[in-house]
Amino acid sequence: MRDVTETLLHDVVVGGLERLYEDDPELYDILEREADRQRGVLSLVASSSLVDPSVLASQASVAVNVTAEGYPGRRYHGGCEVVDDIERLAVDRARSAFGARYANVQPHSATNANYTVLSSLLRPGDTFLGMELEHGGHLTHGSPAAYAGQYFTAIGYGLTGDGRIDYDQVHRLAVQHRPRVIVCGATAYSRVVDFARFRRIADDVGAYLMADISHTAGLVATGLHPSPIDHAHITTTCTHKQLFGPRGGLIMSGRDADAPAPRGSGTLSAFLQRAVFPFSQGAPALNTIAAKARALELVTTAEFRRLASGIVDLARTLAGALTDLGHTLVAGGTDNHIVLVDLAPLGLTGLAAERALEECGIIVNKNRVPRDTTPALVTGGIRIGTNSAARRGMRRSDMLVCAGLIDRVIRSVEVHDQRDYHLPTEVRDDVRARVAALCADLPIPGYPTVERPPWGSAALSTPRVRSSR
Ligand SMILES: *Cc1c(COP(=O)(O)O)cnc(C)c1O
């Protein structure tokens, strides 16, 4: 009965692709090249994932045509009755994926979500406590380079000598500075965050607790990392890292949804609604909200649970293998999807390692490590993540191969100065070929695959495509 080719959406999306192909080869070719790059490289970037094609299709929907300032049932424009259903569905799915009582699906990113929360709870100059960037915190958690660090008084906490969050320091700083908000959650931290302990500290000084789970949202949703929903007053996340969704953000609240908001302004959930719109954002991106709804539905499936345990399993395998190969890991290992390698013992910079690995088709990112003295664009470490590897169905044995390849590359790099390095050609060619073979063995589910290794210009310009399904 149901036939997708007879739907309006099908014709618009497929027709749009055909028109783009005919009319704008310049842009089409760039987009095609990016699709080809993704299938031919091994992305081990901790802050990314590979979305299901149905998430892409949802985002390509005609909901983009609707301007809908406000919330379902209370919009500032007409024509919103259908998109209201999209937003209600996304809110319901966010609440059930995280067991939240309140969810706002409108933030355009986690940065927006964090600034929405901070700039509504705080007044300019007010004090808040967040994790130092150097120790694994995010820019929005108080870095002097960012808005939050410049408009508020940001106090930073960090790690102990063994690479764990220094909760005693958090408590000490909280008592000393009496922040209005404490931010927990991180961007480069490989261990479990003790949200209950953060809440006790927040209660001790009368602060609101905001948990930013952008990196671990998939593990939280599947119970593989403790949930902050009922510990933090407010939980924020992006939807494009471990939720395998579109670029966007969420704001949620659990037990404290009806707690009093600041300055006697009603409940926290009503306050957060106003904090997103009209305080900090205009009209929501309803096509993106449709894609969030799709991703949040997938998050509750048994398949996603298996994916999430694969993510953790691969990260542990990688951490164990790199340790056995003599490398130094921040915090000595991992409980989540992140492995942070301190390159100082190799006399190597994060920049050189990132570039050398990329030459071989292994994509990671340079990252600050504790006590790092290098510039922000050089860094003394690399951050490796397993979201995308697990999505490609990588097994432990493949990850051991990967660890060996990473080890070989970073031990073969000769560094001339902080930025200039040399990777011997024979190492590069050999590792490239092995990465290409691994990628050919591990197609991205739902994406077209290539029958032979994609390296070399001939292969790049005329890929022979077969469907992976
Ligand atoms: C990536 C990240 C963000 C920012 O996410 P965007 O959606 O890219 O703005 C915020 N907080 C943490 C902890 C992150 O890791």
UniProtKB/TrEMBL annotation:
Its main location: cytoplasm. Its EC number is 2.1.2.1. The keyword Thylakoid does not apply. It is found in: Cytoplasm. Catalyzes the reversible interconversion of serine and glycine with tetrahydrofolate (THF) serving as the one-carbon carrier. This reaction serves as the major source of one-carbon groups required for the biosynthesis of purines, thymidylate, methionine, and other important biomolecules. Also exhibits THF-independent aldolase activity toward beta-hydroxyamino acids, producing glycine and aldehydes, via a retro-aldol mechanism. Belongs to the SHMT family. This is Serine hydroxymethyltransferase. It holds the Pfam family SHMT. Pathway: One-carbon metabolism; tetrahydrofolate interconversion; Amino-acid biosynthesis; glycine biosynthesis; glycine from L-serine: step 1/1. It catalyses: (6R)-5,10-methylene-5,6,7,8-tetrahydrofolate + glycine + H2O = (6S)-5,6,7,8-tetrahydrofolate + L-serine. (6S)-5,6,7,8-tetrahydrofolate binds at L133, G137, H138, L139. Homodimer. Keywords: Amino-acid biosynthesis, Cytoplasm, One-carbon metabolism, Pyridoxal phosphate, Transferase. The gene is glyA. NCBIfam families: PRK00011.1. It is an enzyme of class 2 (transferase). The modification N6-(pyridoxal phosphate)lysine is found at K241. InterPro entries: PyrdxlP-dep_Trfase, PyrdxlP-dep_Trfase_major, PyrdxlP-dep_Trfase_small, Ser_HO-MeTrfase, Ser_HO-MeTrfase-like, SHMT-like_dom. The record marks H240 as: Plays an important role in substrate specificity. Its cofactor is pyridoxal 5'-phosphate. Residues 22-403 form the Serine hydroxymethyltransferase-like domain.
